[in-house]
């Protein structure tokens, strides 16, 4: 921890509806993969901190689940709550939207932001995919009329467009303060959490449209050993689904899909943990977990966080 009067430190919430590119933005700013991403909405389920300390400024980014209207299940209520709770106690908010598409869920997020007591930057993401650039300017003007944004910035989280400018603006908003985290810490999440998320990401990416949203991953074993050739991690993960049919989908023909999921997750884990990884995956049916508060809690969906 630093104790210098010149240091600055603060929190920045990254919010928006599902699939607009919030986690991609966090990862790009941090320069490493901390939060999982996929082309499916509702990929992020928990708050994930990304901590960046540079030139005496510590910026603590809070990635959040996409806010959405559908609240039928306990897990959806959990996700919306995890997103909304990030709006309080932060020094800045980055509200991410997808190009020129403004829908009722963007409006839902904006309604929540009206109560925020800190400045809001609107980041119009995925501009790399706008074909007719002439459409952008009038749209930005329309967005400007919706709220008193501190700034409206067209960005591409994936290609890095305008991200330096965005970061500089955010850093300028961080208050004078001692640093809350050691300089080399990049997240608040445990290695077990990261391992579970990487498996979930590969499932989200592999399963495309037949994807069971009703799927979660629990780490049962996470063992670290020193071997003559270097460190070895043995990780056993349980993939929980709601129904038998979903189990068959995750496993795939003769186990082919589960094998690919395992290979891809292991590759990312070896990179993340800088160790050899032995990954064991199992799939189990546990009906009703996604709408059961107690089951959610035991699976790490903790409302107090
Ligand atoms: N072309 C393009 N695609 C992007 C950009 N940013 C994100 N994406 C893609 O958009 C999809 C969603 O990105 P995520 O970062 O997972 O979105 P999210 O807002 O975190 O989504 P949830 O966690 O579900 O709320 C992924 O396929 C990304 O690769 C961008 O700047 N340009
Ligand atoms: Mg996300």
From TrEMBL:
InterPro entries: G_ERA_dom, GTP-bd, GTPase_Era-like, KH_dom-like_a/b, KH_dom_type_2, KH_sf_prok-type, P-loop_NTPase, Small_GTP-bd. GO terms for cellular component: cytosol; plasma membrane. Residues 8-176 form the Era-type G domain. Keywords: Cell membrane, Cytoplasm, GTP-binding, Membrane, Nucleotide-binding, Ribosome biogenesis, RNA-binding, rRNA-binding. It holds the Pfam family MMR_HSR1. Residues 199-287 form the KH type-2 domain. Residues 125-128 are annotated as: G4. GO terms for molecular function: GTP binding; GTPase activity; ribosomal small subunit binding; small ribosomal subunit rRNA binding. It is found in: Cytoplasm; Cell membrane. It comes from the Bacteria. PROSITE patterns: G_ERA (PS51713), KH_TYPE_2 (PS50823). It is a peripheral membrane protein. Residues 155-157 are annotated as: G5. Residues 42-46 are annotated as: G2. Residues 16-23 are annotated as: G1. GO terms for biological process: ribosomal small subunit assembly. GTP binds at residues 16-23, 63-67, 125-128. Residues 63-66 are annotated as: G3. An essential GTPase that binds both GDP and GTP, with rapid nucleotide exchange. Plays a role in 16S rRNA processing and 30S ribosomal subunit biogenesis and possibly also in cell cycle regulation and energy metabolism. Belongs to the TRAFAC class TrmE-Era-EngA-EngB-Septin-like GTPase superfamily. Era GTPase family. Monomer. This is GTPase Era. It comes from Endozoicomonas montiporae.
């Amino acid at each position: 921890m630093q104790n210098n009067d010149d240091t600055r430190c603060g929190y920045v919430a990254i919010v928006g509806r599902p699939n607009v590119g919030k986690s991609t933005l966090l990862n790009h700013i941090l320069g490493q993969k901390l939060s999982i991403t996929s082309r499916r909405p509702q990929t992020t389920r928990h708050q994930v901190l990304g901590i960046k300390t540079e030139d005496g400024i510590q910026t603590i980014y809070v990635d959040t689940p996409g806010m959405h209207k559908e609240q039928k299940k306990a897990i959806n209520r959990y996700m919306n709550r995890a997103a909304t709770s990030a709006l309080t106690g932060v020094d800045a908010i980055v509200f991410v939207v997808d190009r020129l598409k403004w829908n009722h869920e963007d409006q839902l997020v904006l309604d929540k932001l009206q109560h925020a007591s800190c400045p809001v930057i609107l980041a119009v993401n995925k501009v790399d995919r706008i074909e007719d650039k002439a459409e952008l300017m009038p749209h930005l003007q329309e967005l400007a009329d919706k709220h008193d944004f501190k700034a409206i910035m067209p960005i591409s989280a994936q290609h890095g467009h305008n991200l330096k400018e965005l970061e500089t603006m955010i850093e300028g908003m961080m208050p004078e303060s001692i640093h809350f985290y050691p300089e080399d810490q990049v997240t608040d999440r445990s290695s077990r959490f990261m391992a579970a998320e990487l498996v979930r990401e590969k499932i989200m990416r592999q399963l495309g449209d037949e994807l069971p949203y009703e799927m979660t991953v629990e780490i049962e074993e996470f063992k670290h050993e020193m071997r003559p050739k270097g460190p070895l991690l043995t990780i056993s993960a349980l993939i929980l689904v709601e129904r038998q049919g979903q189990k068959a989908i995750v496993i795939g023909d003769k186990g082919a899909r589960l094998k690919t999921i395992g290979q891809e997750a292991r590759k990312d884990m070896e990179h993340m943990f800088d160790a050899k990884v032995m990954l064991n995956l199992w799939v189990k049916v546990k009906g009703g977990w996604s709408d059961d508060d107690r089951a959610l809690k035991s699976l790490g969906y903790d409302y107090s966080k």
